Structure formats: structure tokens, C-alpha cells
């Protein structure tokens, strides 16, 4: 049996949920172009498509909204989240670690429907993220339910739409590391909560979910575009990895990147924001000319989340808020297939080490 490091190129399962990187560029959810969905649909529409293969199957959106609101209004559930959060000083634990703990404590009962389970976990994730805002976040939008639960009440419609778009683009992405971890857990017949915790734990790793944080930290390290040009060239000479560029599946471009880049340009109205955007574009240009690498969704995505007012350590939790429905869809698909994932390993003897 041939060994492939990191399972690169190995077909590890079958799925009808999405295709990633065909023709080197495309991303499709259930056959629909994901980038087109951002202009025509909301995150809740896309959640219905990903979970149930239809935009209106069994009134998914109506049921999701109902259960989501029920979870947000569940004072015992929200007190549990606040109590756990209060056990740690504000800077004493990364929000991803807190999120992992909070979700792991969620209760599942046999009478829960798929939609109810997904809505409750999504609400727990979003309430945890929103609790880091100083402003109130208790007014939810009828159109942008999940996005509005993540932003303060005074967020503009444009900000809600921008966040809704990036949640759509984060929603699903094939057999990436966290989704595969979710499916491995599902294959043991574990519950959805345990599988989602596996996804969160995997996404927490820097090589998977933390690139958007590192990208914004890099942009913020420069004062102007000229300094950025010199700095990036120096980092490349030193063989340093520039986070937010290239992709393991896309070979031509990441189709999600232009959408988030356009949103950054629209929302960057202050001189500070405009300067950061120019710095980002300069880094992009240098990486193209020097390494022929394109930006992935994390590069401008991190900048967009910063423009929406989120602290850097909340970027990856927002990734979780978007990806929860994708993980759930893969969980349900894996459970239907009911095959334990149990690959073989290549033993390396003492003389081969």
C-alpha cells in the first residue's frame, strides 16, 4: 500500500456536500457556486442547502430560526456560558479554548432533531463570540440572523451583509483537517456535539484556522506600503512563511478571496483603514511577483473581520460560527454511511529512523 504524507491526494471518503478546487478555482456547495450564493442568499439559506440539499426542504430556515432564538433566549444555557467565561480572566484563555469547552458541555437528547441540534450549537458558538463585545448584541435581524447575533446592535446593514458573506464562504470546504476530524469522530457513532468539538479542536491549530490572525498581525506590523514592500521581500529572503498565501487545493486562485477583498475596500473609510488596505494590497503584489502565490480567504478575510470590529483572537471563533453547519452536514453524512474510519500506518523500524 502506497504511503502519502498527510494523506495528500488520497481519497478518504465519498461526499455529495461540496467540491473544492475543480479547474483550480471553484468551490461548490451541493452543485451551487458558493461565490454566487453570497450575492443571492443569506447564511441561513446556505445552511439549509448544506444540511438538507435544498434551500427550502422541510422549512429548514424557519425551524432553524425558531430553535436558534429559543437557544439564545434560554437563560439557563446562556448563564452556563457566562459562568464558564467568568472562570477565566479576560486575557487568560484564548476564545477558541473557551469555545471548545462551552460546546463540549452542550446537552443532547434523543428527541432533538437535526435542525434543533445544529441551531443550538450555532447559538452557543455565536453567543460566546458576542459576549466579548462591550456593546449590546441582543437585537437579531430577521434577514441576517446569525450575522446579527455576532455584531453589536448598531451594526449597519452593510456590515451585516459583509459578515453574512464571509460566514457563507466559511461554511464548507470539503475534507479539510477539521472536517475530516469531525468525520472520524462521527464514524465511531459519537454524538454531534463530540464531533463538533473535534472540529473546533482541530481548527484551533495554526496550520488550519489561525492563518487569518497571523495575516492581520503581519499587516499591522507595517506603517505604510513602502515599508511593507521592503519588509516582505526581507522575510522572503530569510525563507520565512507568509501566512495567508497559497492553498493546498486551489492552484489558480482562491475564489473566496476577491469577495472579501471587495468588502474590505467598501468598508475601509477611515484613513487608518485605507492605509491598512493599501499595505495589504502591496503584500499581495509582492507575493505575486516574487513567489507567484495568490491570497487565500484568510488574508483579506482577517482584514475584513478587523474592519467589522472584531479583536484578532476572535477571528478563528468566527470561522467556527460559519463552519458549524458544514461540520454538521459531514457528521450526518458519515453517520448515514456508518463506516468506521480506520486507516493503516506505515511502521518505521529503528534502522529507518
Question: Descriptors for this entry?
Answer:
2 domains; single chain; 353 residues; Cytochrome p450-Terp, domain 2; 16 helices; mainly alpha; Citrate Synthase, domain 1; three-stranded antiparallel β-sheet
Notes on the structure:
By secondary structure, the chain is an all-alpha fold. It has 2 domains: 18-205 and 313-337, Citrate Synthase, domain 1; 211-307, Cytochrome p450-Terp, domain 2 (Orthogonal Bundle). It is 57% helix and 2% strand. It contains 16 helices and 3 strands. Strands 1-2-3 form a 3-stranded antiparallel beta sheet. A hairpin with a 6-residue loop joins strand 1 (18-20) and strand 2. It is globular and about 60 Å long. The chain starts with 17 loop residues before the first strand and ends in a 16-residue tail after the last helix.
Order of helices and strands: EEEHHHHHHHHHHHHHHHH
The rounded distance between the terminal residues' Cα atoms is 20 Å
CATH homology superfamily of the largest domain: Citrate Synthase, domain 1
Q: Biggest β-sheet: count, sense, barrel? A: 3 strands, antiparallel
What percent strand?
under 5%
Sum up the overall morphology in one term.
globular
Topology of helices and strands:
Elements: E1 18-20, E2 27-29, E3 32-33, H1 34-40, H2 43-52, H3 60-72, H4 75-86, H5 95-104, H6 114-130, H7 145-150, H8 157-170, H9 177-187, H10 192-203, H11 211-220, H12 225-237, H13 257-267, H14 271-291, H15 297-307, H16 315-337
Antiparallel strand pairs: 1-2, 2-3
